[in-house]
Amino acid sequence: MNTYLIDIPKTFAIDHEERALPTGERVKELARTIRYRCTAPELREWLSDAEHYSDCAGQGWDFGRALAMQASARGTVKRIARLMIEQGISREGPIATFDE
């Protein structure tokens, strides 16, 4: 299966990891992002989670964290959507699960 490198904004990446969701292989931590090597299903998992938080941030969180998470999730959506377009990856298809 093909893999793709993606830099995910740190705030969202750390939250995603802390919830033990499929992330792909963590390759490198940079100043503002964390680089992952992901399959298409893992990218779809990231995208699904980021779309949720970019739209729902602030529900039950402290206000400052909500704004930072929402901004980070929106940045994640943009990065993944751009990569998927560039690489011809469909948004439709399987999403990574813990069984993979």
Provide the helix percentage: 40-55%
Query: Helix/strand-derived class?
Result: alpha+beta
Radius of gyration over C-alpha positions, nearest whole angstrom: 13 Å
- Straight-line N-to-C gap: 12 Å
Give the uncertain stretches in residue-range form.
none
- Our estimate of the beta-strand percent is 15-25%
Strands of the widest sheet, in order across it, are 1-3-2
User: Secondary-structure element sequence?
Assistant: EHEEHH
Query: How many DSSP-defined strands?
Result: 3
What form results from the Cα inertia axes?
A: globular
How many helical stretches?
3
Number of domains: 1
Mean pLDDT: 88
Profile the largest sheet.
3 strands, antiparallel
Task: Give the SSE layout.
Layout lengths: L3 E6 H9 L6 E5 L3 E6 L1 H17 L6 H25 L13
Helix pairs in contact: 1-3, 2-3
What's a concise summary of this model?
With 100 residues, the chain is an alpha+beta fold. It has one domain (4-87). Helices cover 51% and strands 17% of the residues.
